[in-house]
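Worked Example 4.2. Consider the chain below.
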Amino acid sequence: MGNPVSELQQLTNKSIIELFSVELQPDLHYTKSAKTAQYTQSGTDIQINLTAHGFSVGLILSLNFVTGGAADGIYTIKTVATDGNSFTVKALTSASITGTHDVTFNVNTNLSNPTVYLFHSGVNMSNQNIVWQSNTYTKFPCQAKGFKYSGKGTLPRPIISFSNVLGSITDIIELANKTTPFSDLQNAKVIRRRTLSRFLDEENFPSNINPYKVNNVDPTAEFPREIYFIDKKTVENKDIVQFEMVSSFDLPNINAPKKLVTHDDFSGVGRFVNF
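Applying the procedure from the previous section yields the following structure tokens:
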């Protein structure tokens, strides 16, 4: 993978790398095909067995490991068996999981249309895609702002803006609107991920060596993930598409705290105590 030397020289081992994922919602943004498969894990290789799956290398999946202990998350298919009955993804941590264990996930009935998009704005490493936790985040002109918490008042409602010069964002919106008219990607899940350059996968750099790492690269090292949902599309024209996002607490029927402590939980709740 190419990487301009001049750009690498501008990085430090404390440079923050900001990455985003957008997960479309099944039955709202696409017609789903729900899958249940079995998997095993050897080292960091997870093999998923599913007869005649029809998937290709590079397909991005949001996997839910029901049993066995593998970590739920976003995975990219790395290899596909020649018989078409299994495929592999790469885990962050090594493990040995044998026996019969289930994993569930959804795909678009039209496999050529993704259900998960991974991208970064190009800040710090602007001339290339970024591989993070074995997933490739595509460089795409965008700007996200408004994440800061003030500590008072309402929760932040970040704004994310995309270049639409080639009409690529409009195409995604139109595909989603074929499933649910005028949905405009509302309720799509957006995850903001941030890490430091020294924790990036080795393959981002020449000779597959991260020059900023301290000892070994830790693929799990990242800032706390921030999860938002698209609330509404605020701008769409031939130049940009802009969305306003909300945190999960701002969604309808979500209250904080999610659990109320009652007298049944702790006998002292709701009673006066004389000292």
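The chain has two domains: 5-25+113-250, 32-108. The first helix runs from residue 5 to 10. Compare this with Example 4.1 before moving on.
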